[in-house]
Amino acid sequence: MNSTIKYILVVLIFISTPSLFSQQYILFMFKPGKIMEYDTVQQMIAQKASSFYYQHLYDSSAYFYAQLNQQRPEKYEIAFNYALALAASGNQEKSLLLLESYVQYAGDKCHCSFFEENEHFQRYANHKKFIDLGKQCRNNLKKFATKEKTTNYLLSDKIQYYLGKDQEILNNPLFLNGLNTELKNEQLHSNLMRALRLIDTTRLPTLTEVGTAGTGALSILFLHADYLPNFQLSMGKKMMALGGEQGYSKKNAAYLIDRAYKNLSLPQLYGTILEKNPSGKYELYRTDNLEEMKKRRLELGFQAIEDYLHNLQITK
Questions:
Q1: Structural domains in the chain?
Q2: At what angle do helices 76-89 and 40-54 cross, to 10 degrees?
Q3: If you average pLDDT over residues 288-309, what whole number do you get?
């Protein structure tokens, strides 16, 4: 993502931290009962655990996740990360116990694909307990899908898995600050192609089929495809045409369309993209007709551009 441009988008709750291969939950360690108030000590422990994991120091990572798990056993995200570090270090018995804890505490938030597709857990693929945990996770998802009236919950889970892989690639230290762009795009493209094999892009999965988590994950996958701007534009227009009735936010479609036009070096339509001017202040990326852009924004329920710019204390 271009560091000089500010994009506004909705981010799914589950994303992953930097890695070439294995996903973890990002841990936000808030104080129990305190909304948005960090527990700084636990946050530091979580960061150490994650850092050691991505340095392939799995025993050290597991040591710090064990501390967190002891303090916050109700946080299923910790149990998953702990299980992953243990699996990577070869501690099968304890890893399966933590994975069981993850499935138990996550309930209908359990992501089967995240552990069934993970290469560190693949060594357990034929283990009875691992198979049983997969079945239990899918049953939990089915209950949630029934409640939410989602007909293809397993497809939704898979789409979210590929979004997690995308986030993983984008946050890999190898690719930060514009490094190794060609390799990054190759990996993103490979991941996108795997995701697209699951769906029909001429008829995107609907809200009824994959729920808001599935449609949202697809939207962000498309947003990440900066290396395929014409594809981005095509999917953005399709999402805009489908609109709310199929579960695709027209605002998200506007973000995608503007991003595609920016990647094609063309003017944006909806005023969702900002960039820095020479003085260091943010301003709108160019548009060919400001008045028409204002109308389009208001039609989609965006804030009036003058108010938006004023609130951000930036120049037009």
A1: 17-146 (1.25.40.10), 154-263 (no CATH), 274-311 (no CATH)
A2: 30
A3: 90
